[in-house]
Q: What sequence folds into this?
């Protein structure tokens, strides 16, 4: 059960090499929106690791609004993530779009399986992910309530997989300046209602690179257990989400400020 009433202690996700999400400390998950090439993912992996990230993100299967937009390198993308992990030791966080791909994800050693906003209520997918032992990073749907996010987490927990990380990534509102509106209140509310760790995605929330750091700082102040941040070695040339991607140098500076903020709070 995701409800704190049945589980007063915080759930802490611990990977085999000791990386943790939850239970104090600030987990930093960083990397490109999409894996684009071996050079791109390995370069970014090295640089976010040097900046203090403990996890590498990178999309191989991409849920794009337009069918004509880059859809990801798919199986090859998972291979490249594996290479980046071999080089840096960073565990991999990557999005799954279909239950048919679960075996492929497990065979490629994906450390944390991301369920994207668009699949938050893909209940058949959630049920299948309830049967695996890999931690799941579950993103809040584009227009989903906190209660709906928790019920989606419940689908995974009910199947027997208790390693679920909740992710606030901004919700649809009438505001158009930002890509989405970061729901800061979701962080303390999720922490109050549930024992699961809460990670915030300021990149997809704001949709603008210069907004990433202020939103991330606000998330830390509000009690987030971690952040998932898009970083690209050449944002202007990124195949997806370049406008919201930090350069490795920008990420390095932001990470320093975020660690300081996490200590202060
Ligand atoms: C992503 O993380 O690249 C992504 C597609 O995020 P979301 O599902 O939150 O839109
Ligand atoms: Mn993205």
A:
């Amino acid at each position: 059960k995701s409800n704190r009433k049945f589980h007063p202690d915080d759930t802490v996700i611990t990977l085999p090499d000791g990386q943790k999400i939850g239970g104090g400390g600030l987990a930093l998950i960083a990397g490109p929106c999409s894996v684009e090439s071996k050079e791109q993912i390995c370069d970014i992996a090295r640089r976010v690791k040097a900046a203090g990230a403990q996890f590498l993100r990178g999309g191989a299967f991409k849920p794009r609004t337009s069918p004509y937009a880059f859809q990801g390198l798919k199986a090859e993308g998972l291979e490249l993530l594996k290479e980046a992990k071999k080089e840096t030791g960073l565990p991999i966080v990557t999005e799954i779009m279909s239950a048919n791909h679960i075996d492929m994800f497990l065979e490629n050693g994906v450390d944390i399986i991301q369920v994207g906003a668009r699949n938050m209520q893909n209940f058949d997918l959630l049920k299948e992910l309830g049967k695996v032992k890999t931690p799941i990073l579950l993103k809040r749907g584009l227009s989903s309530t906190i209660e709906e996010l928790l019920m989606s987490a419940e689908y995974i927990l009910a199947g027997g997989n208790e390693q679920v990380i909740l992710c606030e990534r901004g919700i649809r509102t009438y505001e158009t300046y930002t890509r989405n509106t970061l729901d800061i209140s979701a962080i303390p509310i999720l922490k109050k209602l549930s024992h699961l760790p809460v990670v915030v995605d300021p990149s997809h929330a704001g949709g603008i690179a210069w907004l990433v750091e202020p939103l991330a700082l606000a998330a830390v102040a509000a009690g987030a257990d971690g952040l998932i941040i898009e970083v690209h070695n050449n944002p202007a040339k990124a195949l997806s989400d370049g406008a919201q991607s930090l350069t490795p140098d920008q990420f390095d500076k932001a990470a320093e400020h975020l660690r300081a903020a996490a200590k202060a709070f």
Remarks:
- The mean pLDDT is 98.
